[in-house]
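Protein details
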Amino acid sequence: MRVLVVEDEVRTAALLQRGLCEEGYAVDVAVDGPEAVWRAQESPYDVIVLDVMLPVFDGFEVCRRLRAGGCWSPVLLLTARDAVTDRVRGLDSGADDYLTKPFSFAELFARLRALVRRGARERPALLAVGDLRLDPSSRRVWRGPSELQLSPKEFALLELFLRYPGDVLTRTRILEHVWDFAYDGVSNVVDQYVAYLRRKIDEPGGESHLETVRGAGYRLRPQAPAKGG
């Protein structure tokens, strides 16, 4: 297995490299953000061990750039920060797991094995279909250059459609994902919120991004509809 260690502190990088080599990994080391992005984009790594505090730009930014560039190698963040906000920020930037310093090598190896088993699968931090873009971390939505203002339920509904473009989502499935299990409101709430969402994401005078599939549910077109189509 090939692993990229991104760590600017020389002693820590050497310890990680030695420990991983003894475990049977082939190890490359990067010492700052730009080198990490370059190495990860140039070579296929089974897993990346990424320190948060780096020169030039930090591990959060490394993650964002890798995911934006289509690099889906599993990322384990190493951080001395144990605040919940920092852990959330790391996961939202595209990391798969995190480990707080100081840590044991036994736990590091176990987490790396778990990440390698998952493999490199696409999991973008920013969801996009056609000219629609949604950032789950900042909870912002754009259509083309224009930012849209959505209610929490409208945001959750659009996020669900963007995660499954082209799939027909039944009303039951939408209810289960956007409303809680105990929801006991009006029966046509899904239709109401699809209508609200359509009014906000449709191009002026154009066809809806959201299709009604008669007798089944709703579907987000995989690409933005052509005008007049």
User: Anything to note?
Assistant: Confidence is low (pLDDT under 50) at residues 225-229.
